[in-house]
Amino acid sequence: MLKIYASDERLIVYDDNERIWDTFPGVVSENNRPVDFILSENELDNSSRRIVRPFKGGVISSYVDAEWLLRKAIRQSKKLRPLCRIAVNPGSGGIELRAMQDWYHKWYNKQLPELVYEPIAFLKGLDLYEGVVLTQRASMIELSIVRENEIIEYKSSYFNLDCNCRDVNQENHYIEKIIKRIVNECNNLDCSLPIYFTSYKELYELSDNDFDQYQIKRIDYDNFCMNIINGLGSDSIPLVLE
Predict the structure, then answer these.
(1) From CA 217, how far away is CA 134, in angstroms rounded?
(2) Three-class SS of residue 118?
(3) Could you give the angle at the alpha carbon of 194 between the alpha carbons of 203 and 172, nearest 5°?
């Protein structure tokens, strides 16, 4: 089985249980065409070349570059697997989800990949079927409530750290306020559900005084990614596109 996780900060490909690609999802573009990929986020600032990030805020920002990068990633496999599962962000729209299936269909004949929402895959990696997955991306907070392998509620909020924060402490406090607001606005959240929180940049600490009624468990981003990959290897439930 081929397992793929593509996000703002990480592109991971597993061929059966072997990690065959793990890189930063950045594409070098010349004349508006992808020609190469970068290996780390450091190259964003140090490169004189034009670099495009195909995934932003958990969704596809450039279809041409995203298709090129995913094709490069899949070609790292020694042979075509009969089953491919791709973890996708719950904020992705139907057009983006259909594009991923169409790409794979075009490259490998009549095979369609199974698309699995990343919060469901993450919880499956922990052998759980319900819980809350709370993530802080570069400029967005997302919350997904999962019950019986289905997302029953999804909320997100964009923010701008540059306009609201001067230092790390102020930044943490600002992000904490956004998280608290999203949690309080949820209709299906109860204290019995564990909440897993991760940050794409660094692991922010939440004040226990504000969240002590919930079981918030902090998890670093590397473990978050690995649990998603492990969850894709279990009996995942694919998305059904209407």
Answers:
(1) 10
(2) helix
(3) 25
In this structure, the strands spanning 84-88 and 140-147 are unpaired
CB 96 within 8 A of CB 130: no
Residue matched to tokens 């019950």: 147
Give the pair of three-digit tokens for residue 174. Answer: 């600002």
Name all contacts of 72-77 with Cβ < 8 Å and 24+ positions apart.
Answer: 72/37, 73/4, 73/6, 73/11, 73/13, 73/21, 74/2, 74/4, 74/13, 74/104, 74/107, 76/13, 76/15, 76/20, 76/21, 77/2, 77/13, 77/15, 77/20
List residues bridging with 4 in a β-sheet. 13, 86
Per-residue pLDDT reduced to its tens digit, 133-181: 998 876 788 999 999 989 999 998 877 666 555 566 677 777 777 787 8
Q: Which amino acid is at 17?
A: N
Nearest CA to 4 out of 121, 102, 85, 61 is that of: 85
pLDDT at 209: 57
Q: Which helix (H) or strand (E) covers residue 91, if one does?
A: none
Strands (E), 180-229: 194-199, 215-218
Two tokens, residue 114: 């199974």
C-alpha–C-alpha distance, residues 226 and 206, integer Å: 23
Report phi then psi at 91, rounded to 5. Answer: -85, -5
Residue type, 133: V
**pTM of the complete model:** 0.87
Candidates 216, 224, 196; CA nearest to 5 is: 224
